[in-house]
Amino acid sequence: MRLISLALAAAGLVSLSAQAAPMMSAEWAEQACKAWNDNPALTDELAEKWIKNDKGRGYKVLHLYRTECGEATKVELTISAKNGKSLCTYAGPIQHTTLDQDSDYLMHAETKRWKEMGAGEYGPMRAMMFGRLKFEGPKGEAMRVMGPFEQFLLIPGKVPGDDACPK
Fold first, then answer.
1. CA angle 53, 35, 50 (to 5 degrees)
2. Model confidence, pTM
3. Gap between the Cα atoms of 122 and 119, Å rounded
4. Left if phi > 0, otherwise alpha if psi is -120 to 50, otherwise beta: which for 146?
5. 65-120 pLDDT, tens per residue?
6. In CATH, what number does 19-158 get?
7. Cα pseudo-dihedral 57, 108, 85, 28, rounded to 10
């Protein structure tokens, strides 16, 4: 009986791991968007000032990818000002091909580094200082919202994703 239970448990683990989309894929991004919206540091604290630097568009754009998978695998999160909050309103393939360097962000890191940040091993200051997180966008603005930014970097630790490169 114990052998059957172990076999069933192993089969369950295999099916669970098969369901995880590649980290930074469009499917993964959808789950990251939900994680954003479930985090008050991101929805409430970023609504105070950060989201207002949107060039009058009503949204900011984040492009993310894993360095070793290449820039062609970028995904997008669109963060919008809604009901006094900064909410993730879109996640998936790139919709905004051109980023505004004064309000939008491009971030990439090696898979290993995304996982380290997601596990809370270090925050955004260390990640950027040591070049573990490559970052383009309004750096001064990012520096002013380090607490919420750190919460954002924990999302890869909360949203399961496998190591295959997104297609």
1. 15
2. 0.87
3. 8
4. alpha
5. 999 999 999 999 999 999 999 999 999 999 999 999 999 999 999 999 999 999 99
6. 3.30.1050.10
7. 110
